[in-house]
Write a structure and sequence with these properties.
The complex is a heterotrimer of chains A (374), B (360) and C (258).
Chain A (H helix, E strand, L loop, with lengths): L4 H4 L1 H29 L6 H19 L15 H35 L4 H19 L3 H23 L7 H22 L7 E2 L8 E5 L2 E4 H23 L1 H11 L1 H6 L4 H27 L1 E2 L3 H16 L4 H22 L4 H15 L15
Helix pairs in contact in A: 2-8, 2-9, 2-11, 2-12, 2-13, 3-4, 3-7, 3-11, 3-12, 4-5, 4-7, 4-11, 5-6, 8-9, 8-11, 9-11, 12-13, 12-14, 13-14
Chain B lengths: L1 H21 L2 H16 L8 H7 L6 H25 L8 H17 L5 H23 L4 H21 L29 H22 L2 H11 L1 H6 L4 H27 L9 H14 L4 H17 L7 H15 L16 H11 L1
Helix pairs in contact in B: 4-8, 4-11, 4-12, 4-13, 5-6, 5-7, 5-11, 6-11, 8-11, 9-11, 12-13, 12-14
Chain C lengths: L3 E12 L2 E12 L3 E5 L6 H8 L7 E6 L2 E2 L5 H7 L1 E3 L12 H10 L6 H6 L2 H21 L14 H14 L4 E5 L7 H16 L3 E5 L3 H7 L2 E6 L2 E6 L1 H5 L2 H8 L2 H4 L1
Parallel strand pairs in C: 3-8, 3-9, 6-7, 7-8
Antiparallel strand pairs in C: 1-2, 1-4, 4-5, 9-10
Helix pairs in contact in C: 3-5, 3-6, 5-6, 7-8
The chains are: A mainly alpha (374), B mainly alpha (360), C alpha/beta (258).
């Protein structure tokens, strides 16, 4: 057996690959859900994940008041305290991501479908006035005050424009998503406390070895990630298959028009879809901070593209595909960097995407793309 | 209210367009000549009494802004307009072609060669076109959304490859890139941006000329038909794959050209000069100005490049601002500020402009 | 003069579990007007789509002018000489009527990117010829007064006729019209019939899908009937009209219901 890095560290790579892949899979669910229901790539989903990590950060540092270091040591907790804290952080992340996802839908997508409503109008009005003040004044407090004052009248006129109800061309949805994604990431980068630098999150869990597998020490945080991700995905699958709302999601994914005729509230279903994807991304965000203890304004982008790759790899629109694709991608990325070198990790992911789309665009578990409609 | 401002701007542009069409050949040529002369005189605009105060950029030399920002963005917007605006192919990795052009020039004139800048220009453009084919051939079969992600990946692959390969300078980048040759008494030195601006403006004019010819030919029609309804176009005999590939390739050529100009001016490049955010700004320029309309693209390029410099306050927030602008444009006016005017429809404007607003 | 232009030979078309066409054999003679009718869902548009290369038949093949066109790319089939219109109008909305037709005429051009940039003599000649030919077609269709209007602003009748003009611009031998009379009133339908006859006089062969019997029966030389993906009748309009199978297919008989 040659003494290659990949062979020496195979099981280690496998464990970390599965953990990383679980995170990809959770985020991939968001892409695949929205695509299945709207036939649209939610380009801003990556920022939904990023917002979730900041939700986790805020929960642990501000709400739970856990310091980064206690007397020079990590603020380890154990037992029920640990579980309680982790659950709180998880809920915070899920709330942040879920709510942002729903807001995103109402601000950047719904108006383009021709049925924009008040929430979207208010947020867009605020953003408009904020941006206009930014151009002329450089004091954030003043910007915010003026923006808040101007929001109401502008929102009112926006609502009147919304009532004209025209559907935007497909390309517009994508560009709107890109704009939203960029704006969210940049907002955090510009106005966040540490700006574009890295933010540390408190390490609550002592990363002990849980057991030994084929000569590799398996850390507890990896196990939590893999198990946690599987639990969340099971919950999602149950929701989609067993509940009334879940049935609605599946119905709209198959045929939106018919669902509408049959009385399904399609707009509500769309919100639910975004919320589900957001909550999954929030879960992924919490697990991410658990393993990596850090976040920054632009982690969304790279992770988002990789998760999207995972979704496509597994078969877009297919929930099991998201899981399979995520795990596979995590493994491939790890093995690949052992072979080619760590700096090429991201290139590997992009290359996988290219290859999948070129040779098997339907993904491993299938959902066909690119069919002509005549 | 903003809608009204934009519409009146557009109405102004339209009536100008009408008057223009009514001019005879000589009047048109003199008009072009005046405009072109004024553009070449642009570095001196800040010196003009009233205009100067309006136009000058605080904190940065006006002609530096003209060259380093405006010309680059205008060139790129023109190229990207072919891909996104005319053919309707959403390319999110356009910065990749820009980087290829810059790096080829850098390699040929500095890192691994000793060619003069002028000779590296056509080679860099051709290499960009080859990358356009390499990217397009396997991916243009994909429908819109997927093409967007894949092109995004391409842009990042280019940047990451440059960052990880020593042969391309890795993170250090490549310096000592040669300057354009002296010409007509113009010296391309380090301090004065004016010669670069004149060169850049000339490149813009040439590109406008070539693209105009393409747009008003079967090639341009094929592109628009693909954008409007690709399946129907194919059934009308349009070889869609070939023309999509041409759109990509020509877009790549223009992007590469911009990169060559950039490299020649700054003399030193590294991977951080080509981030994803640039692709977003490029896209914003085309979309904001009016995709599908060459003059809209120019307007968009000028806006995205110039406004943050003129109103310095939001310079470091510019990407955020343009992200929000993209969303607002898509919600309220997806066609951009100056959309392409189709046929004679403007003649109806006089009678029913109010209903036009609602309908459009 | 009866020479087989299109030979649709034992074509079966399956999509997953659904059989849209089942062993359909159909021939179109040069110079004739063939009507294709049948109840909704019978497979008429699928037939069209197989002929024009949108779908590749699961079994069977299609021959045009003696050469097989099965598996050819769509734009190649157009170049071979088959053109079509669409059931729900698919014009290029952001182009003028003239430009729409010119896209069709462009199909026969030889010059491309190089010619366009350099404005070679050949390119300029082809461009002028295409423009003239397109105006001729617009005039032939009676819609030349709106040549420079955006396609999306044209009234419905104009749009339908524009689609036909665009298809004719590709210089086809076989013109396939997919429900050209949809949305027309009786007077317009009469005009359409005359138009189709005029087109045939110009030397084109016409295949027509239509629901309205007034149009189909009056204008077709022959009529073929599809039902549930099978061809159930094929002959002169009067014969087909009185064919019991055809009547049953449209009106429904107890046998079919159970």
């Amino acid at each position: 057996m040659p003494d290659w890095l990949i062979i020496r560290t195979f099981w280690d790579l496998t464990v970390t690959g599965l953990a990383l892949g679980s995170i990809y899979a959770l985020v991939a669910l968001g892409y695949t859900l929205v695509y299945g229901v709207l036939r649209l790539i939610n380009f801003a989903h990556s920022e939904i994940f990023m917002v979730g990590t900041f939700g986790a950060l805020l929960a642990s540092s501000q709400f739970l008041n856990i310091p980064l270091l206690e007397d020079g040591n990590y603020p380890y907790r154990t037992g029920m305290t640990l579980i309680f804290f982790l659950v709180v952080i998880l809920i915070a992340a899920m709330l942040f991501s879920g709510i942002s996802a729903v807001l995103l839908e109402r601000v950047a997508y719904r108006p383009l479908r021709g049925n924009g409503e008040s929430v979207g109008a208010i947020v867009l009005a605020f953003l408009t006035s904020f941006v206009v003040t930014l151009i002329f004044i450089d004091d954030t407090k003043i910007n915010l005050i003026i923006a808040l004052i101007m929001t109401a009248p502008i929102a009112y006129s926006y609502l009147r424009i919304f009532k004209r109800g025209r559907q935007a061309p497909r390309l517009a949805f994508l560009i709107s998503a890109i704009g939203a994604s960029t704006a969210i990431a940049e907002a955090v980068g510009v106005w966040g406390v540490h700006g574009r630098d890295q933010y540390q999150t408190a390490r609550l869990l002592e990363k002990k070895t849980l057991f030994n597998l084929f000569g590799t020490d398996v850390r507890i945080d990896y196990v939590i990630v893999i198990v946690g991700a599987l639990l969340m995905m099971t919950a999602l699958t149950l929701f989609v298959n067993k509940t009334r709302l879940g049935r609605g999601v599946r119905a709209v994914a198959q045929d939106a028009e018919t669902s509408r005729i049959l009385g399904v509230n399609v707009d509500m279903i769309i919100i639910v879809t975004f919320a589900l994807g957001g909550v999954m991304a929030g879960g992924a965000a919490m697990l991410f901070t658990l393993v990596y203890d850090q976040t920054r304004f632009n982690i969304g982008f790279i992770l988002g593209v990789k998760s999207f790759t995972a979704a496509v790899l597994g078969g877009i629109g297919n929930l099991k595909g998201a899981l399979l694709g995520g795990l596979l991608l995590g493994l491939v990325e790890n093995y690949g960097s052992a072979i080619f070198g760590g700096q090429w990790k991201d290139v590997i992911a992009f290359t996988v995407l290219l290859i999948v789309l070129m040779f098997r665009p339907t993904g491993l578990l299938g959902e066909s793309l690119g069919k002509a409609r005549v | 209210m903003a809608n009204a401002i934009v519409s009146s701007f557009r109405r102004g542009a339209d009536s100008f367009g009408d008057a223009f069409h009514r001019m005879n050949k000589w009047q048109k040529y003199s008009f072009y000549a005046i405009v072109i002369a004024a553009l070449y005189m642009a570095p001196f605009w800040p010196d003009v009494p009233v205009l100067g105060a309006i136009v000058d950029t605080p904190g940065t030399q006006f002609s530096t802004v003209l060259n380093d920002q405006v010309i680059i963005f205008v060139l790129v917007a023109l190229g990207l307009n072919v891909v996104v605006g005319l053919a309707g192919l959403l390319d999110l990795g356009y910065v990749g072609f820009y980087a290829v052009g810059a790096y080829v020039t850098a390699i040929l004139t500095s890192a691994h060669g000793n060619l003069p800048w002028l000779l590296s220009l056509p080679i860099a453009v051709v290499v960009s076109m080859i990358f356009g084919v390499l990217l397009g051939a396997p991916t243009l079969r994909l429908r819109g959304d997927y093409l967007a992600i894949v092109t995004l990946g391409f842009g990042e692959i280019i940047r990451l490859t440059a960052k990880n390969m020593d042969w391309l300078g890795a993170s250090r980048g490549i310096s000592n890139i040669k300057k354009p040759p002296s010409f007509l008494g113009l010296e391309f030195g380090v301090l004065d941006p004016k010669p670069y601006y004149y060169l850049g403006l000339t490149l813009v004019l040439i590109v406008v000329f070539v693209l105009h010819r393409l747009e008003y030919s079967r090639v341009g029609r094929a592109w628009v038909s693909i954008r409007e309804d690709e399946d129907a176009a194919e059934l009308m005999g349009v070889h869609t794959f070939k023309f999509k590939l041409w759109a990509f390739t020509i877009g790549a050529a223009v992007g590469g050209l911009a990169g060559v100009h950039y490299a020649g001016k700054v003399g030193f490049i590294n991977p951080d000069n080509f981030p994803l955010q640039l692709s977003i700004l490029f896209l914003a320029a085309v979309v904001l100005g009016g995709s599908g309309n060459m003059y809209g693209a120019i307007l968009g390029g000028v806006l995205v490049a110039y406004v943050p410099e003129r109103l310095r306050n939001f310079a470091d927030k510019r990407v955020f601002v343009f992200g929000v602008v993209l969303v607002l444009m898509m919600v309220f006016r997806p066609e951009g500020i100056l959309p392409k005017r189709v046929g004679d429809e403007h003649k109806k404007r006089s009678s029913s402009s109010a209903t036009e607003e609602v309908a459009s | 003069m009866s020479e087989v232009l299109l030979d649709f030979n034992n074509v079966t078309m399956q999509f997953g579990g659904v059989t849209a066409l089942s062993e359909v054999t159909l021939q179109i003679q040069r110079g004739e007007i063939l009507g294709l009718i049948g109840p909704n869902g019978a497979g008429k548009t699928t037939c069209f789509n197989v002929m024009t290369g949108v779908y590749s038949p699961t079994i069977g093949n299609v021959t045009f002018n003696g050469a097989s066109i099965t598996g050819l790319k769509r734009y190649q089939i157009t170049k071979a000489g088959i053109a079509r219109t669409f059931q729900n109008i698919r014009l290029f909305s952001e182009m003028t009527a003239l430009e729409n037709v010119m896209v069709g005429a462009d199909a026969r051009k030889k010059s491309s990117v190089g010619g366009a940039i350099l404005r070679t003599p050949r390119q300029r000649r082809e461009e002028n010829e295409a423009r003239e030919r397109s105006m001729e077609l617009l005039t032939f269709m009676g819609i030349s007064d709106r040549a420079n209007n955006a396609a999306r602003n044209l009234p419905y009748g104009y749009q339908r006729r524009l689609e036909i003009a665009r298809a004719l611009a590709t210089e086809p031998q076989l013109l396939c019209l997919d429900e050209p009379a949809a949305g027309f009133n009786p007077a317009e339908k009469q005009e359409l019939n005359e138009l189709i006859l005029k087109i045939r006089e110009q030397g084109y062969t016409v295949l027509l899908i239509e629901h309205d019997m007034n149009v189909v029966m009056k204008v077709s030389d022959r009529v073929a009937v599809l039902d549930f993906g099978k061809k159930i009748a094929d002959g002169k309009p009067d014969d087909v009209r009185n064919n019991p199978d055809v009547i049953a297919a449209y009106l429904g008989v107890d046998d079919h219901a159970s």
